[in-house]
C-alpha cells in the first residue's frame, strides 16, 4: 500500500487539557480511496490466517533523533516480515501518541494499549487492538524508552 494514500490521525487522552477522558488512544489511518479499494489492498497484503497479534507496528526515524523530522510508520506481518503498510509522518506526533498511551495505562491501571482504526470514506474497515509499538532511530537502533513494549515480550 502506498503511504501517500493515507492520512494519519490521533485520538489521545485529553484529560489534562479538557478535564474529560476521551478513552483509549486511537491511531487512525484514513485511506484516500474507496472502502472496496482498501479491503482489496488489505486482502493482497495480509495472509488469510493472520491474527491481529501477528501485525506489528513500528516507527523508524529518517533523521537523527535530536532533530525534528520525519520517519516511517509501518505495519508488518510478524511471521513473514512483509510490510502491510508504510506511511511517512512526523516523528513528534508518534512520540506524543506513545506518551498518551502510557498516561492512559497509568490512569486506568490497564496495560498500555491502543487501537489502530483503518478507514475509507470515514467508514471503519478494520480495527487492530495493539500493545506493541517499536520506535527505532535513523540507524535502526531500538529506542526502548520511546517504545511501547509489553512485559511479556522479550526483545
UniProtKB/TrEMBL annotation:
Name listed for the protein in its UniProt record: DUF5793 family protein
Any one Pfam family match given in the protein's UniProt record, by short name: DUF5793
UniProt keyword terms in alphabetical order: Plasmid
Species this chain originates from: Halococcus dombrowskii
Top-rank taxon: Archaea
